[in-house]
Each structure stands twice: as C-alpha cells, then as structure tokens.
Design a protein that fits this description.
Strand content of chain B: 15-25%
Order of helices and strands of chain B: EHEHEEHEEHHHEEH
Number of domains of chain B: 1
Oligomer: heterodimer
Distance between the termini of chain B: 28 Å
Structural class of chain A: mainly alpha
Helix content of chain B: 25-40%
Distance between the termini of chain A: 17 Å
CATH architecture of chain B: 3-Layer(aba) Sandwich
Shape of chain B: globular
Radius of gyration of chain B: 16 Å
Shape of chain A: globular
Strand order of the largest sheet of chain B: 3-2-1-4-5-6-7-8
Number of helices of chain B: 7
Order of helices and strands of chain A: HHHEHEHEH
Strand content of chain A: 5-15%
Helix content of chain A: 40-55%
Radius of gyration of chain A: 15 Å
Chain lengths: 142, 211
C-alpha cells in the first residue's frame, strides 16, 4: 500500500507502536471488520475501528439511534446503518462500508443493547475494537 | 446542577465529556488545542470537517446544549466557572494530572484522572478525604513519554475514557464508592482483564497534612 503524506500523519501514533508499525497498519487497511451495530457498543466499536484505519467495515443490523455526541443521521429501522456509513466517511474516507453477509461472524460484544449508557458502551466497544485491531495487525499472513 | 470539569478534549476528554453529558450532567471542557489530522486515528468524536477548529468548542457543542467550552490550558479557568461537582483529567501531561488532583482537593470535590498509552491505561478515582493521586504516584515523573512520542492504539482511549466517565458518574451517584481506587489495564496484549485496586492514604502526603 502506498503511503501518502496524509496517511503518514493520520496513523503516526499507530506506526510508533510495537506490533503495529507500517506493516501492521497496512494489514489493518487490507482487513474487514464485521460488526453488529444494533447495540450502542457495536456502533462505537465501528466508529473507532474506522478511525483506526480498518479497510472495510461490514455492518449488521440497523442503527436506529446514534450514540449522543457521535452524530449520524438515524437510519430507518432495519436498514443497514446508512447513517453510520456517513459518520465513518466523515471521519475516515479511506474506509469502505458494506452490509455483512449472513455467514460472516461479527466482533463479539456480550449483552450489547441500543440503550446502553454511553460510558459503558464506550468502554465495551473500545475494548472489543482494541483487541480486534491488535489481533488483526499481528496475525500471520495467510 | 453543578458541572463536571473535563480537562482535555482529545482522545480521553472526548469520550469522557460526551458520556458525562449523555448522563445528564453539565460539562465544562477545557482545552487550548485545535483538531489535527494526527488526532483522528483515536479521537472519534471529531470528523475531517473539524480540522483546525478548537477542540474544546467542537466537543462542547457535540456534547450537549448546556456544555461550555473553555479554550485555555488548565488551571487557567474563567472566574465565572460556577458550581463544580467533580473534575476529570484526560490530558496527556503528568504535571497537569497532579495539578488537577490538587485543585480537586482544595475544592473538596471528587477527582478522576485518566491516562492511556500504547496498549494500556489507568483511571484513578477518589473523593474528598480519600487517598489522593499524589498518595499513589507521589510526584510527576521526571520523564514520561506522550502519546505523540510512544503511540497509542486508537480504541484504547475509547475504552479508558468510558471507564473514566463511569467512574465520575458513580462518584456523583446516590451511593458513591467509599475510598480511592485505580482501574489498571497494564497491556491488552497480555490478554488479561483490567483490575481495580483500592488505594490507601500515604502518610506524609500533602493531603494528609492539610486534613
């Protein structure tokens, strides 16, 4: 993957990390994260994964209500996260967003709900996203 | 209702201010920085359209209608601050963390002090009369790497910020926890869970002499 000046600046704090570096960031950019966004922790995990530079987000569920402060237009219930896709594009235009296929296993966040308090959703969504990113960046190439 | 002062509007201050505001508390966001491209890998509260704008103003507007922005560096707070219920530090600067702890002690309000670096972080929480931040860490380290120097995995700040927001809301709830605690995430690469430890007051700490 070519590294534009903008890309170098955007991911400067990742490239410094042991286990990530330029190669790890390229692996993230080539990877797809599957996230169930019916619950608020999943919505926040998706936003943090997008910010961190995952290449593709495959979303499952309809994000009917945006988490406060992370504004995106409410998608119609049942429609896959239309508003969330716009929120991702506003943060990181390099990230592709698509609907998850039924066979794709999603990032596991236990007991996620649409009405989870934002503090809990941040803690749980952030943890799930962080663990996923580290595993992805350090996975052995197939 | 008395406000929660949030020092720092970046990776930690962002989720902290938004979650505290979402729980119905007025927030005052203190930060003198502007949004930069190198922030966006972790500061998910900001978009590309926010680049170059003052972080405190963007975050306060996004947090709630009643939120206030102070574009300044702590402890440079306005005279008309009004009643304060608690203060939370999400800065990337150890001396500021100690200054926030001292400010909370002088005011008799709870303090929550959050830090994140590389793959981990910690969140100190204590009320008036509890062990203080300096009981635990004594004084700022002579040298401490910043996120800009050592890096931080983006979503770690959402995780640590969420824990910090929950901690301050618990301190302001009907049944506040007794005693000071620190939530510790050493390094997520080790695979273990975060721990919460109780902190006892330290004999000889400035907060004990003043009591």
């Amino acid at each position: 993957m070519s590294w534009s000046r903008d890309r170098q600046v955007r991911y400067a704090h990742h490239v410094l990390l042991p286990d990530i570096g330029g190669r790890g960031q390229d692996r993230l950019g080539a990877a797809t994260a599957v996230v169930d966004v019916d619950g608020r922790a999943g919505q926040l995990a998706a936003l943090y994964l997008a910010a961190a530079g995952v290449g593709t987000l495959a979303l499952r569920g309809g994000a009917a209500a945006a988490p406060p402060g992370f504004p995106f237009d409410a998608a119609a219930p049942g429609v896959v996260a239309v508003g969330l896709a716009a929120a991702v594009a506003a943060r990181n235009p390099e990230v592709a967003v698509r609907a998850a296929a039924p066979t794709e296993a999603a990032l596991a966040i236990a007991d996620d709900r649409p009405d989870l308090p934002l503090a809990d959703a941040l803690a749980r969504g952030g943890e799930a996203a962080a663990r996923w990113l580290h595993a992805c960046a350090t996975a052995e190439a197939p | 209702m008395a406000a929660v002062v949030v020092v720092g509007a970046g990776g930690l201050g962002g989720p902290i201010a938004l979650a505290v505001a979402a729980a119905g508390r007025p927030v005052v966001v203190v930060d003198d920085d502007v949004v930069e491209l190198s922030n966006l890998h972790r500061q998910a509260q900001f978009t590309m359209a926010d680049l170059g704008r003052p972080k405190a103003e963007v975050l306060a507007r996004r947090a709630s209608a009643g939120a206030r922005a102070v574009v300044a560096r702590f402890p440079d707070l306005p005279a008309d601050l009004g009643p304060v219920a608690a203060i939370v530090d999400g800065s990337d600067d150890p001396p500021t963390k100690f200054a926030v702890a001292a400010w909370a002690r002088a005011r008799g309000v709870p303090a929550v002090i959050a830090a994140a670096l590389r793959y981990g972080g910690n969140v100190f929480a204590g009320g008036p009369g509890d062990a203080c931040y300096a009981c635990l860490f004594e004084e700022p380290p002579a040298e401490a790497p910043s996120c800009g120097e050592a890096g931080v995995l983006g979503p770690v700040v959402g995780w640590v910020g969420g824990v910090a927001a929950a901690a301050v809301l618990a301190r302001l709830g009907d049944r506040p926890p007794a005693g000071a605690t620190i939530w510790v995430l050493d390094d997520l690469r080790r695979g273990g869970a975060a721990r919460t430890l109780a902190i006892a007051p330290r004999a000889g700490c400035g907060c004990r002499e003043a009591a």
